[in-house]
Amino acid sequence: MLSSAPSLPTVPLKRLLVAVTLCCALLVGTTACGSDDKDAAATPSPTTSAEKQKFAKTRFVANAGLAAGAAYQWIIKPARAGKFKQGADGRKFAMVKAGLAGAFTYNRLKAAAKNAEGDPLLAKAVAPLAAGIESLKDLPSKLRKGEGADDAAGVFDSVINSVKGAGKDAGAPVVEKVPSVSQLNGG
Asked: Are residues 151 and 175 in contact, defined by beta-carbon separation less than 8 angstroms?
């Protein structure tokens, strides 16, 4: 009885040996040239102090811009529109978004303050704002619950404006950048 199964293609043995040898040589070559520091390739580090300062300002501007955009889009603007008032249409959803945005804003402002430490002028300008940034820590839960949401929006607005002013004074102007909803959820 003959089998009707298709036959497998045959590869000459010499080609197969060359291919396996070449693959092994490439594998050994790439692992031998690698370093033991797994983070070295993932996090490039600036070599000069000028580069460190430039990157510190860039990261500060990016983090503060995302914080400002989230606070304005999902906390300050809805508060001014009356979305947090009892009986307002979409109040519950606005408060949930405001709670997420509050947590995101706090996280990004903490990161921006840490980034500011890399630049002496920026560090000096942002240092007095640490207490204001820390005061935002408990506000996201109040926003979600609806406890003093308008007051919380005012605090966020004040802190964001202070950070933007400090950045501008240090030569790192902050421009609001509204984060995507996936960035907001990811923190």
From this structure: no
